[in-house]
Each structure stands twice: as C-alpha cells, then as structure tokens.
UniProtKB/TrEMBL annotation:
<dbReference type="InterPro" id="IPR029066">
    <property type="entry name" value="PLP-binding_barrel"/>
</dbReference>
<dbReference type="InterPro" id="IPR001608">
    <property type="entry name" value="Ala_racemase_N"/>
</dbReference>
<comment type="similarity">
    <text>Belongs to the pyridoxal phosphate-binding protein YggS/PROSC family.</text>
</comment>
<keyword id="KW-0663">Pyridoxal phosphate</keyword>
<dbReference type="InterPro" id="IPR011078">
    <property type="entry name" value="PyrdxlP_homeostasis"/>
</dbReference>
<feature type="modified residue" description="N6-(pyridoxal phosphate)lysine">
    <location>
        <position position="32"/>
    </location>
</feature>
<comment type="function">
    <text>Pyridoxal 5'-phosphate (PLP)-binding protein, which is involved in PLP homeostasis.</text>
</comment>
<protein>
    <recommendedName>
        <fullName>Pyridoxal phosphate homeostasis protein</fullName>
    </recommendedName>
</protein>
<feature type="domain" description="Alanine racemase N-terminal">
    <location>
        <begin position="6"/>
        <end position="214"/>
    </location>
</feature>
<dbReference type="Pfam" id="PF01168">
    <property type="entry name" value="Ala_racemase_N"/>
</dbReference>
Amino acid sequence: MSGLEDIRARVAAAAAEAGRDPGEITLVAVSKVQPLARVEAVLEAGQRVFGENRVQEAAEKWPGFRERFPDVVLHLIGPLQTNKARQAVELFDVIESVDRPKLARRLAELFEETGRRLPCYIQVNTGEEPQKAGVLPADTDAFVAECRDLGLPLAGLMCIPPVDEEPALHFALLARLAERNGLTGLSMGMSADFERAIAQGATVVRVGSAIFGERGKT
Ligand SMILES: *Cc1c(COP(=O)(O)O)cnc(C)c1O
C-alpha cells in the first residue's frame, strides 16, 4: 500500500526534523467514504488506527472488519448528536469531537453506565467559523474544567483549521490552549498540512486522501 508507506515515512521524517520521537505521533487513517477494498488493503498493510466522521457509516463498515482485525482502534472525528452517543460509545474507541456541555454530560453518563471510558478530545473551533463545530477558544478553559468535573477522560484538544487560512496559526493556538490546561494530546493536521502540525507538536494526525486517494474517486 504505497500511500500508507509514503505517509508513514513522511510522519517519521517530520518528527525527526522537529527533534521528536515518531512513536509519540499517532497516524489516524481517515477512511470515511472510501471503498471497502481500499480500507481492507490499508488494514492488510498493517494500519490499525482509523477515523470516521459519521456514526452510521462506521456502524455499517467496522463491525465486520473488527472480527478480522480485533486490534483496530477507531476514532470518531465528526460531530456527534446526543441521540447517537450510545451507539458511538459502543462502536468507537476514542471520541475526538466533544464540542458542547450537553454532549459531555451524555458521554459521562454512558461511560458510567457501560464502563467503557473512552479517551476524549475537545474540538476547538480555532477559526471561530459559524458553520463549524467546536468550542470557541475563549470558552475552552471553562469547558475543559466542566469536562473534568464530569469525570471525562480528557486526552487533549482537536481542531480543523479554516480551509483558506494558514494552518500554522491555528495549530499554535491549539497548542497554547492545551498547554495552559495541562493537556498533552493535540489532534491536528490532515493530508495537506500534517507535517506542519507535527512541527508544532501534533500527537495525532488525521490523514485521509493522502493515504487512500481522493474521496469519491475509485
Ligand atoms: C475528512 C477529515 C480528515 C481527513 O482529511 P484529508 O484532507 O483527506 O486528509 C481529517 N479530519 C477530519 C475531522 C475530517 O473530517
């Protein structure tokens, strides 16, 4: 699987360039919308950490793959409605998109009830875009505190920078917000900018099209 090998090599090179241990960077292969055969090829090439942005799509795709590849780790990287939270807690291993108090409270209840306590990332809307999910930077400290009060296992912060802006400014903002809240996980960087994100401290990069090819083209 040449796309995967190439991206792994680039992650390692970006880590070395930044004087970081590549082992502290998790590559999430974003498999949304990709044909099953492509996802299977990436699984067979040894990749185990995947990201999906929709609960329904993950429910159709992943239970079958998990039977064959039980050590798969699945990240939810898209918006989560509270009425799908239970299904998400059953299907996923990491929730990267905690973005509002109502969802945080629901997840805390479900973790308590099911005993599945999934590592969570708070999504920050660093570009303050009205159409995008995430807490505003100014509200992040209070929301982190609220999630901690609820007992959510917080792994870090996540962002999706605006498409038309220099991502470095957004990565730097996310890193500052995480640091001042004592959080070490930084999920940032996609196909177009994961190397820059690694230079700025990303511990999770979410790469789709650069591994699988463009979505919607087979
Ligand atoms: C689709 C998606 C990605 C991957 O995007 P690529 O540009 O294909 O690498 C990363 N993060 C989120 C939240 C996404 O929805």
